[in-house]
Structure prediction request, 214 residues.
Amino acid sequence: MLLDLGLDEPFGASMAFVEGMIRNLNAGRPDDPIAEVSFVRSRDYWVVKNAFVSQADVLHVMAHGDAGAEIWAGPCFSSGDGKTDFRLFDLEADVEDSGYGIHAHAVIADACSTGTSKWKSPLRNMLEHDICYIGTSRPITWHDSTVYCSGFYSALFRKKGRGVSRLAQALDAHERASEAYSVITGIACPFKATVLTPSRWAKAYVVDRPTPVR
Prediction:
């Protein structure tokens, strides 16, 4: 699930690149695709909320990141023109009402400085199960995203096999992408991965939907 919340031309171009790269993996496999892509860009809150809780291996969100200067505001994804933002606290409240949370096995918060505890805490209240959370340790550029994501998706769909969990696949893909980023750019990769576990509240109230059998 590719979710573009930046909503302006640069974000759209970057997401289109990622979408095209993933679709290229299916070349020559019309009846047995390696990966299926859903690409959503919208200002409608309920469309975004449904994308967050959709059944997908990877939830990749691209936007501006704001950790929120005030405690009540909290972290949010925002559009390039500043007219739209999606607060994690609002999404968290709707998960509480419905009981359906984040089902993806990996979440890429492809925005500036999303690797802090301010981002991770509300996400833990929305989890159906353990996930690989990939956030950033600093402000990032389009080049950072392109280099990292190229390596991540190439590695993710290469490493498949019996007995390998989707969480393990995502963590392995991150390690490979991080190493490739450092080799290509000569600097440390700003994308950092961690395993997020559901909070005590999420374990009690969020429904853990079974993963569809493919």
Remarks:
- The mean pLDDT is 89.
- Residues 2-140+192-205 form one domain.
- The radius of gyration is 16 Å.
- Helices lie at 9-24, 45-52, 88-98, 117-124, 142-156, 166-185, 200-205.
